[in-house]
Batch of 2 targets.
Target 1
Amino acid sequence: MQPANSLPRVRLLATGGTIAGTQLLGGKRGYVAAALSADALLTAVPQVAQLARLEAEQVAAIGSQDMDETVWLKLAARAQAALDESDVAGVVITHGTDTMEETAFFLNLVLRTEKPVVLVGAMRPATAISADGPMNLFNAVAVAVHPEMRGRGVLVVANDEIHFAREVAKTNTTQVGTFRSTHRGLAGLVHSGRVHLYAAPVRRHTAASDFSIDGLAHLPRVEIVYAYAGMRPELIRAAVQAGAAGLVLAGVGDGNVNAACRAAAAEAAKAGVIVVRSSRTGGGVVERNIEIDDDALGFVAAEELNPAKARVLLQLALTRTRDPRAIQEMFHVY
Ligand code: SIN
């Protein structure tokens, strides 16, 4: 075994979530998210001390349904500060699973680093029968210190799987195997700390990204509008009236909406709001000019990004430009 002081340094940034949750006592259903501190999480997995010298920092203590741009910007700043320390090998972030894919993708686009950044959560609270958090955390640290994980962008580790931030999505309300990377597949597997690498990420990220949090106090407002049979255009107009600079349509099928909503979205685009067509289906590519004439209507196609991730990219894109053509190019690149 390596002497403790020669082990790599890893910064653990805790934000809450079920991984830090405790079950209600007295036979009541449910649990309280974000009840345990970062140090308490580490105490539950003494084995991580064999992998790394962990330094815990509590950045937030929330269920990830309450994650927002304020915490994103603070988290990104704390992660960047840790990554900029030359002898920190990587960063592990504990996070609720509900919005983990959005935070992971945001960090994947703004952090300037080649070092591993690993988000980890759990589907069962820390005090539940067969809690999944301790093994997930152990595996996350193993991935963060693995030399071959450099340059792979931000990752999500759960249920023995390593996912790329861009690809991963939560697909099940309760099962421990909730995370899936349906389009381009897994980054790898990790069994009891042993890492098996598969693919490399294909899209631009982290050190090569054009986005950053430098000088950003807030992110542009982007709303998601969900499409359905009989959808009415009022919600699109309401989002614009509320001040949205961008709009993501969680469209039916290939990112489509009915004629009335298409007209309302085109009106918004004409007024300078960036309209991105994504799909509510959970899979597939939304391409330009197939079912909808994006060129004529001034829309942007989200390609593979689900609505939540399309929103993240659009928020960052809007920090650079309001030109839909330039933003479409970003959806090709990131
Ligand atoms: C949350 O996202 O904070 C709650 C659910 C979870 O962590 O699994």
Target 2
Amino acid sequence: MAGSDLKRLRERMVREQIEARGVQDQRVLAAMRKVPRHLFVQEAMTSHAYSDDALPIGSGQTISQPYIVALMSELLEVEPGMTVLEIGTGSGYQAAVLAEMGCEVFTVERQRTLYSKARERLLEMRYFKVRCKLDDGTMGWPEEAPFDRIIVTAGGPSVPEPLVDQLADSGILIMPVGRSRRSQELVMLRQKDGVVTEERFGGVAFVDLVGEHGW
Ligand code: SAH
């Protein structure tokens, strides 16, 4: 598919799937207009890269639906220069969107194949502000903590305690939490002066967060 066609599809994705559903943060919209999502999916999926769906990325995992990436990026209320910890690198797409928004991104993936591919892809695309780690992300990244923002892109039974401990003051954490696998609610924690408050933002369906503090 020609580059200009892909750009047109990407523009349409932002207009019809994201703006039309109420995402207004201009930095989120600009980042999603810029990041070439088709380079984060398997080649056979190129023509589907801008459709309103999650897509397989190998190893039984998925790249999230564009709207969900936009919604979570907006809910994070990021400012340029902030540090963001992401759990679940997957394809690296969400990390690229946050980097495009000016954040310094620390992303953790537990599956070696996905980790290696995403790391290589992000370097090739010159996202030098993203650092990747192969590990159980439910333990966070203690050496780099605290983080201004934390985003978990896999669904778990509860927010892992180490992540709450690694959230900076005035920090925001967002994560799909649910009693059953593949059906969760988007939960946001805000930390202010040592007090953590919780808000919920409706149903989502993410792949499982596994590991020490996962399923
Ligand atoms: N954010 C990704 C999509 C994430 S899919 C993107 O933009 O493409 C969820 C990912 O979380 C999968 O790759 C899965 O392997 C990973 N994952 C699940 N449990 C994990 C854990 N404990 N630590 C790190 N990664 C984990």
